[in-house]
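pls read this protein.

:::
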Amino acid sequence: MTEYFAGIDIGSTMTKVIIINKTQIIASVIGNTGPEHRKLANRIMEEALAQAGLRLEGIKYIVATGYGRINVPFADRQVTEISCHAKGVQSYFPTAKTIIDVGGQDCKGIKLNNGRIIDFVMNDKCAAGAGRFIEMIAESLGIKLEDMGKLSLTAKNEISIASTCTVFAEQEVITKLGEGTPLADIVAGIHKSITTRIVGLVNRIKIEPDVVLTGGMARNIGLVSALETKLGYSVKIPPEPMLTGAIGAAILAKETSQDAITKGLTASRKRPPLQEATFFM
């Protein structure tokens, strides 16, 4: 009989669900995180279950991660995003030594030694080193967020953005635009600025290759290019960088269940039906 395991990652801006069996991913769903975490978690899980052709009771073990992990009533266990990101990255890149995760509201660095976490650092107090910073600049410039990366690669003379505060940087960008600075040069400068902050943060744990970039901003080719230029070597990116934490959570769910069987224990508990677990915070 096939066994299934799930990981759900509730981040500051996006919620992700992964369902796996013992050998592969069979369902994955990404949705926007809103204020009603429990209601959203249930909806995203329902979508993943439908995609996999399963019911909730068909999932042997579920691990929740991310800053909203405590708001997943159907999860069997809550695990920190640091542990889940490390596990997810290790599944793709066993030789990884440094993980740089750039999400919507925070940035974190994780140091690994043979897959084991030995140190980490996180900036969750300011969006200046995260995706929200670039999103705000895109709105100010009237550019689609998904177009920022390609546009920056066409820059001739990237500018320097001196401000470290998101609000002041936004004002600086608007001033540069008013002075006639080419849009591509401004966007390239933004990517260089945010990369400098990211590297400054993560270097507290000493960045060493192989470096793996995860999070939504790993989709931004302009940021990736700026980061590689800053580091002086290429970085590795998972097939879907936003799903790394959820994948790690699903793998931990499988390992926890198998470990319980080995020890003669029962890993899972009786879960409430999704519709009964749904309510507003």
In short: The two ends are 38 Å apart (CA to CA). Residues 4-81+243-277 form a domain with the Nucleotidyltransferase; domain 5 fold (CATH 3.30.420.40). The chain has nine helices and nine strands.
